[in-house]
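User: ok so my PI wants both of these folded by tonight, can you help

Assistant: No problem, let's get them done. Here's the first:
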Amino acid sequence: MWEWFQRRSATPSQDDVPSVAPRGRQTAGRYRFLHDYLRTRYADTVVLTFDQMEDLLGFTLPAEASSDQDWWARSGVNPADSHCADAWLLAKRTARPNLQARIVVFDRSA
């Protein structure tokens, strides 16, 4: 019985764990707190102000976020370049900004 317990409680060695190379970016980099927030919301639609996003991130959004609609329109995650869009794209959401109101609506994508 003791042998069975010892085998069962043994931690797997590095050789026992299958290695899978990740494809593309798997984390949102410096935007991970926004990503975590969006990923863990149950609502299909989440509305955040720019100030709320900056509070989550711990730093201010780039100036283009307030003035350039295209800044929010990124559609893919580039493994070589960290971008704020990684936060919502990896959380399987789309972003619809209202620059005058300084809010962004994040909808769950299919």
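One down. Here's the second:
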Amino acid sequence: MAQTKIITDEITTLQSTESKCWWREISKKQWYALWASVLGYILDSFDTMVYAFALTRILNEWGLTTVEAGLLSSVTLFSSAFGGVFFGAVADKVGRKKAIMITVLLFSIFSGLSGLSQNIVQLAIARALLGLGMGGEWTAGVLLISETWPAKHRGKAIGLMQSGWALGYFLAALAAMVILPAFGWRVLFFLGILPALFSLWVRSFVDETELWKNLKENPNKKTNILQIFKGDLLKHTVVITLASSFLMFAYWGLFSWLPGFLSMPIEKGGAGLSVVKSSAWMMPTMLGAWGGYVSFGFLADKFGRRPIFAAFLMMSSVFVYVYGNVRDANLLILLGPFVGFFGSGAFSGFGAFTSELYPTSVRGLGAGFTYNVGRIMSAFAPIIIGYFAGIYGLGVSLGLTAVSYFLAALTIYFIPETKGVKLK
């Protein structure tokens, strides 16, 4: 009996240990779906954010004002908003896998073409077309993960996917530090065409989700794009869009200008660092962002989406305000990881919220609309921050993003908790 009890205790201990290893519960195909979304978002981020590091060079070479430079960022954000909504509907129509492949090809090609631009109009057109793919890739990736991974680990998976943005931003900073001084901003953009090869891997290894395939095999389940504007879904659509707008304004107002803030002279409200130093100073910020994206997912799966979302947003407001009023280089590098952790990590909440609130038939449209209409509103952020930077200095104008983070935190309490919801 004693021996039997020992064996039973050992089995119980082993089972308890294995239950803690959540990754053991994930199949190979589910991991492929996650990595497709993570890698796609890394490449998306890299192609998008190299412009932030090239911004000062382009501004000086073409003699642009800060408003004109901000306008180029806004053009990308406007088009990404339309791309997110459009490709959300496309993903509902042709599938999540195909939508990822199309969007990656789109932003890769036009990132490369950005390097051939000879004036602000040509660059604006290239960045606008890049934005279509940028917005659509997030939507398709969130759908692929949400409909593939189990509910109790969905937050973790989406957090890991969202962390791809920080890794892409980090790679953009590294590339800018190495390539920008030696070869100029055009070569930086040319690197962006390489991700097109990634679509071949997606085609070979990633499966379409069963939820979407079952929907298409059932003729009685027809997609009605107006469904997200009816009944309970209307309230969700309005509130999530509002929260998205505040957060997007804060993020893009801050991170579109953050490299410029670090490299801009102190007399113009910047931190007065060199281009190489400003790129290097962004790296700890992006490492902090990566930690925030991933941590959010684990915390949200344990404590719920809403309280973690609100906490991240409130902390973002505090750290961003302090950061914008600091000029000491050592303190900036110390604060950077906290700004990245909270200011970026909050985005991991949107994928879980939106996928868990909408049915499969309109999940793509619901996620794409709420997330990317917020981008339309945020498209004004680089212009507004650029405008006030010309008057009060860039550091002071970044305070507007702290206010926007605070407003997003208030709005989030009107969204219902969705932890553990099974998708239908």
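Confidence is low (pLDDT under 50) at residues 1-19. The CA atoms of residues 55 and 173 lie 12 Å apart. Good luck tonight!
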